[in-house]
Specification:
By secondary structure, this protein is of the alpha/beta class. The chain is built from 9 helices and 11 strands. The structure holds nicotinamide-adenine-dinucleotide and zinc ion (ZN).
């Protein structure tokens, strides 16, 4: 067993790439001629609600045809078997970590399978398409929106994440480009508090220089190997 106790793991779109979920910045980073960054904003939701809802409807529908890959399964095994503290923070809005079995999990950028009422703030599990002007089952207002943290909005559960980072002995970043803050700054926070840092990514990310160790390759190969090391077999 490695001599770490508290682990924080950050995942990004790269961990789901081998499941067939498109990353945002790679090939396919444009959607209907728009930059993805222009679809995922509160301003876009105000001005073009049909476009924003259609974008997330397509992504939600896609989840039915994809499965967790070896990286999700390995992280779920680590969650089940790791005796110390562990927090898996994902920027992904897909549900592949929970379908693989991870439970110590935070969706800091929201979830495709959830709708948020802009009027009462209550979340509702959502599996189908979500047309604009859908009635909230709790308060009846026509104000349901995708439960996604848009560019310019505050990510979820930052207090819990910051606390875990401040206590981490090891911080591991998997399949993220390091382009979106505040997640891109977690490595610096963890280092500041004395954690070792490891990056697993296909290519060097924008934040690579902050990591004590970087391993380059597909998550489906690198993550199971790293988890086996951590569990000592
Ligand atoms: P990103 O698209 O910016 O970067 C993906 C990173 O993964 C790149 O560095 C790339 O080199 C790497 N990568 C690609 N294939 C890989 C593989 N097989 N193994 C390991 N690494 C691989 O994604 P991001 O950093 O997560 O940031 C984008 C934002 O977009 C996030 O905020 C997230 O909420 C959102 N997003 C979510 C999903 C999803 O839910 N699956 C998909 C796309 C984007
Ligand atoms: Zn409501």
């Amino acid at each position: 067993m490695a001599d770490f106790s508290n682990i924080v793991i950050l995942t990004g779109a790269g961990v789901s790439a081998e499941s067939g979920v498109a990353t945002f910045r790679g090939p396919g980073g444009l959607w209907e001629g728009q930059r993805v960054e222009d679809v995922c904003t509160p301003q876009a939701l105000d001005r073009q609600p049909e476009l924003v809802h259609r974008f997330y409807d397509e992504r939600r529908a896609k989840l039915a045809s994809v499965q967790p890959n070896a990286a999700h399964h390995a992280l779920a095994r680590l969650d089940a078997e790791w005796p110390g503290d562990l927090l898996l923070v994902t920027q992904n809005v897909d549900d592949l970590h929970e379908r693989a079995g991870s439970t110590r999990l935070v969706h800091m950028h929201g979830e495709l399978k959830s709708a948020l009422c802009a009027a009462c703030g209550i979340r509702t599990a959502w599996a189908d398409s979500l047309p604009p002007e859908t009635e909230c089952p709790h308060c009846g207002t026509l104000a349901l929106r995708p439960d996604i943290v848009f560019f310019g909005e505050m990510p979820y559960q930052m207090g819990r994440i910051e606390q875990a980072l401040s206590r981490a002995d090891l911080f591991v970043s998997i399949g993220t480009s390091g382009a979106v803050y505040p997640a891109a700054g977690f490595v610096q926070t963890a280092r500041y508090h004395g954690a070792k840092t490891l990056e697993l990514n296909l290519d060097p990310s924008e934040g690579s220089l902050w990591f004590g160790e970087s391993r380059m390759g597909p998550a489906g190969t690198l993550v199971p190997a790293w988890v086996a090391e951590m569990l000592g077999r």
